[in-house]
Please model this.
Amino acid sequence: MGLLELVSNFGPGGTGFEIALALITLSIIISGICIGLGIAFRSKKLKRFGEEELLQAVINAAILGVFALLVSLLTDVSLDLAPENATTCNLTYTYPGIGTVVSNQSLAMFAACELDSIESGSFDFTEQTSRAVNILSFASDIEIETGIVNYKPFGGLSSTAHTLSNILSRTSLYQSLLTANILLLMFTNLSMLSVFLPLGLIFRSFFITRKIGGVLLATVVSLYLIYPLILLVILPVNTDVIYSPLVNLTEFNSRYQPELLYRDLSAPDSITEFNTELSHTSTRQDLVESTYGLTEAAVGIEGGLLFYSLILPIIGITITLISLFHLSRLFSSEFITTAVELI
Model:
């Protein structure tokens, strides 16, 4: 595949790259004219200006070519490194004026698919934990009448239900963070090559906005290559490992949800039968012992969600920002925050 064909496949329609390439060509022509006029009118300043602009145009063309080859190489390598579910997922998004497009083969989308797989598992965890909380809350309120004293044999399970409820509320935060990270990666895949890279080359083609162009190019390299690559290296090969403790919650719910929560107590003598059944030591023992591993399972899954939704993005963003700072200087621009200083 030729370089121009490879570049044209990056963005939707390749319009941004056509503009960038046209401006690079135009800047080469203008710099050549400046050099010629400088020689003709014996103006050293005009000649030096033309030589500097010619050098910058050549650098822009080299940046575009090297970036194209780098993206192609890393994408091919990531096909081997990324899990199968990441390279075959069907995340989609809609381009204005183009329509819905299936995610293409890119580092950002591989990482987004991995995070999407983790998020999908978290929804199953939320469902099973909610069921367990309902069962434990119901069981902790059961009161048995013995004729001598009334007591709640499962009153102690309220603390387990409270713990799982707290984990459940925190899980919603982890899911929101995962969604935000997925949207960031999809935005990166959508806009970095089709918008930011052409804009960076365009701004870098003019000496007045060269610093802005350098920052934009550094942003493209950092967000499109470095950040998703960090996520892919650390993300698990098999997300089932994260949710293996979910088996304990599922088994508990499957056994006690119909026995306790969905038991019909409206029939005659049903409450008496239920009271008699719970009076047996073996019944109470089975229920209590079945709850011993629920908190451990939920905490294990919560720890994985905390790492992949918060800790891992912080690590990735930190490394990305450091890379952005140094790449901005490499592309002949200082990492300055105010627009006035940039220009």
Remarks:
- Residues 84-342 form one domain.
